[in-house]
Design goal:
Elements lengths: L3 H5 L7 E4 L10 E4 L13 E5 L8 H13 L4 E5 L9 H10 L3 E4 L5 H35 L4 H12 L1 E7 L4 E6 L6 H12 L8 E3 L8 E8 L2 E10 L6 H40 L5 H10 L9 E7 L3 H5 L3 H21 L3 E7 L2 E7 L5 H18 L5 E5 L9 H17 L6 E3 L15 H22 L3 H10 L4 H8 L3 H15 L6 H27 L1
Parallel strand pairs: 2-3, 3-4, 4-5, 14-15
Antiparallel strand pairs: 1-5, 6-7, 6-10, 8-9, 9-10, 11-13, 11-14, 12-13
Helix pairs in contact: 2-3, 4-7, 5-7, 10-11, 13-17, 14-15, 14-16, 15-16
Length: 548
């Protein structure tokens, strides 16, 4: 930046300052020569104006009016050439310039204005060249950091050192991705207040400034656009003074390489998600052998020799209902849910891999020394974090049992899934469900798939179902009420709105059709399990219809 002082200090020009010493640091954008009474129509502000005084040939009042007009137009200063219209600079101009702190200097007769213009142009070119060299050096430094894969922390640390500032990088939802500071780090309360102010303007793709207590100076905020979306916000607070042109060039370069780093991280994350999704699909479909599962776990950084379990984070409303917000909004909710789950696990140092499946996030967890109670407590914390980050939805979390036999991890998935389903059969939402919630259903999970459940149901109650269909009777429903009433005839009959004798007749027909004895505890248990299998089948089909 060239200032009036820089021009005054050029020895060969022999310039003499007459007024406005306090403002000689005014930046000079360019030099303009004019002899017209009002040159402001050709000026944009920031120019150094040179004149021989021809336009100031009027009386003192006119001279005062003209110089005030120039001062109001925010020019950097006035160079007055003597030996032409005036032998010396008019006293009225000197007085007004001093009063307003406006730089006014005398240009001797023997110094051509061209010499001043050339000197200023040369200084501007040299300064721009120097700035360009420094900018290229910064660009190379930052590029090297990216190529050497040193990460966001190294980028922000370099920014803090070069500019002398504190910097905070937020993701789009306000989570701090990393921080760096040169002399003073921003406090947690200041960072939280900063995000609240940014959050109100986060849809704006333009840079903007904020003013807040605790920051010391103005805060510059730069949206970081990656893959055509705002991926982060860079907030920068300079330790002292204002941001220079060089500072802003550094910030521009930092924003660019930060966007590249975010795109790279996103590409890696999406690849890992696809691999994790394929792994879960094959694991649940029972398409993997023990050795292959072990190899996949090792790839994701997990120890195949330890026990693992499945945690299922499921959106309580069906996908169709989520979709009512619009496809883009529904996708955003699912992405944010997956991101929130991953971020939670990372911050708790829980070794895990995850993938999105329909309206769920499936997480394979390596619990280590954590017991069942600790896993349930962790699930409760996760549910709270999801509620805070995504208040528009609620989630239920299912927890399967830990298994050392890797092929049994499929069993853990179904335990987590059916634990949630059973609670939903009772119209419960936002639950933490585990194997303990399965009760009698746990005996059915060895079958796991709908086809096997259908076979079991048909073997026990298939003939009774067919009889109801052919005769428009309610024997299956009556049997369910009888069993749910624990064999109490009066309670079951009252629930069905029939007489006890009617219910006794129906139960006799059940025995005749099925060939089983309701007096046998084994037969009653099989009836009960078959009815539970029917509920699981219906729940599974309902889920598939919603997804479709």
């Amino acid at each position: 930046m060239i200032t009036v002082q820089d021009i005054l200090e050029i020895p060969e020009l022999d310039l003499r300052l007459l007024a406005g010493k306090a403002s000689v640091s005014n930046p000079v954008r360019w030099v303009h020569i004019s002899e017209v009474p009002d040159p402001t129509k050709w000026l944009k502000g920031g120019e150094l104006l040179l004149t021989t005084g021809y336009s100031f040939a009027g009386d003192e009042a006119d001279q005062v009016e003209q110089i005030k007009r120039l001062i109001d137009h925010n020019i950097s200063g006035l160079g007055f050439g003597t030996g032409f219209s005036f032998d010396k600079v008019p006293a009225a101009l000197v007085r007004v310039a001093e009063e307003y702190g406006f730089p006014l200097f005398e240009v001797p007769y023997h110094v051509p204005f061209l010499a001043i213009s050339e000197a200023v142009a040369s200084k501007i070119v040299n300064e721009q060249y120097s700035l360009l060299q420094r900018s290229l050096a910064v660009h190379e430094k930052l590029t090297k950091i990216v190529l050497e894969e040193k990460g966001l922390e190294a980028i922000l640390s370099t920014l803090a050192a070069l500019v002398g500032c504190s910097a905070v990088l937020f993701d789009f939802h306000g989570v701090v991705l990393c921080e760096a500071a040169y002399r003073r780090r921003l406090g947690a309360d200041t960072v939280a207040d900063l995000w609240r102010m940014i959050g109100d303007r986060r849809a704006d793709r333009q840079n903007f400034a904020l003013s807040m207590d605790g920051a010391g100076s103005s805060v510059q905020v730069y949206p970081v656009v990656a893959s055509h979306r705002i991926g982060a916000f860079l907030a920068v607070v300079k330790d002292s003074g204002d941001f220079s042109e060089y500072d802003r060039i550094i910030l521009h370069n930092v924003v660019t390489v930060t966007a590249l780093e975010l795109v790279k991280k996103k590409a890696v994350a999406e690849t890992e998600k696809r691999l994790a999704g394929d792994f879960f699909d094959e694991l649940i479909a029972s398409d993997l052998y023990e050795e292959e599962i072990a190899r996949r776990l090792a790839f994701f950084g997990l120890d195949a020799q330890l026990a693992h379990l499945i945690v299922l984070v499921d959106i309580d409303e069906g996908e169709g209902e989520v979709g009512e917000r619009g496809e883009a909004a529904a996708l955003d909710v699912k992405e944010r849910l997956h991101w929130t789950v991953d971020e939670f696990m990372a911050r708790r140092d829980v070794l895990s891999i995850s993938a999105s499946r329909s309206d769920s996030v499936v997480v394979l967890v390596q619990p280590g020394e954590a017991d069942a109670a600790e896993v349930i407590r962790l699930a409760g914390e996760l549910q709270g974090v999801v509620a805070e980050m995504l208040p528009e939805i609620s989630v239920s979390i299912g927890i399967g049992r830990p298994h050392r036999q890797l092929t049994d991890l499929r069993q853990s998935y179904y335990e987590a899934s059916y634990a949630i389903r059973i609670r939903r059969l009772k119209d419960e939402r936002a639950v933490i469900a585990s194997f303990d919630d399965l009760g009698s259903y746990g005996l059915l999970l060895g079958l796991q798939d709908t086809l096997s459940l259908e076979v079991f149901y048909d073997s026990v109650l298939g003939r009774l179902r067919d009889y109801d269909a052919q005769n428009s009777s309610d024997l299956v429903k009556s049997l369910a009420s009888f069993l749910e009433a624990n064999g109490h005839w009066g309670d079951a009959a009252e629930k069905l709105f029939v007489h006890r004798h009617t219910l006794r007749y129906r139960m006799k027909r059940v025995e005749e059709i099925t060939g089983r004895d309701l007096g046998s505890s084994q037969d009653r248990m099989e009836f009960w399990l078959a009815l539970k299998a029917r509920e699981l089948i219906d729940q599974s089909r309902k889920g598939k219809q919603t997804t479709a």
